[in-house]
Amino acid sequence: xxxxVDILRSITKSCGDNVGGVNKRVWITQLQQxxxxxxxxxxxxxxxxxxxxxxxxxxxxxxxxxxxKGSHSGNVEAIENVNIDVFKHTAILKAYATTPEQRDSLVSxxxxxxxxxxxxxxxxxxxIYGLENGLYATALxxxxxxxxxxxxxxxxxxxGLQTSLPKYFLYGGSLATSIAYLDNIGLTPIYExxxxxxxxxxxxxxxxxxxxWDISFxxxxxxxxxxxxxxxxxxxxxxxxxxxxxxxxxxxxxTNYTLNFKNCK
Length: 265
Description:
- The chain has 265 residues and is mostly beta strands.
- It is 10% helix and 40% strand.
- A five-stranded antiparallel sheet has the order 4-1-7-8-11, covered by helices on one side. It has a four-stranded antiparallel sheet with strand order 5-6-10-9, with helices on one face.
């Protein structure tokens, strides 16, 4: 049986002060948009890969909500359960919507399922709420205010039951590298051409006497990629004289081909 008291003896406060509060920036995604994530040896989530967004060859980006410093907040509540103890993650977000498009985005967020929220805390850490089962919107409020100084932000409340406390995210060993990592998710293509080689073939022009020519094309390159599997090649033969162009023949072939051309006048 695990000695829970002994485990608690290893939990100590660091020498520095643990600052409360959340910075102005949070990142949002959904569980169904996450392909996978990994943990380092200390238990920090240190990578996150999102799925392809449609057929764009780009992964989903994390949506960023930037508000005033200290506007966002997160809290956790332990709930005793007959089968397993669970933890209710609650993320409270504030967003300013000053255009119709931004307000439509808020409506979409309110209807979204299995939301995952990354908080940048004032303690220099990034906490992840809802990573196991996601969060669901439970409230959305907004108002015009009565005075010029009144807050006119929309306030979202998202909650969901998880089996553990919020995870920490850390990439590259610092807050700066972690922020850059999250900001860049979805900006790099999934598939890229890392390298390639090209092959060439000599086009033979054989004169049969007078204005009678055979023009031969080879399906397989004679340099570099002599073993390449060529599906087809496209050719276009033109005749120029005195600045005047005459189209002789064009098309596509999958095997060697010889074009006979006469009367080049």
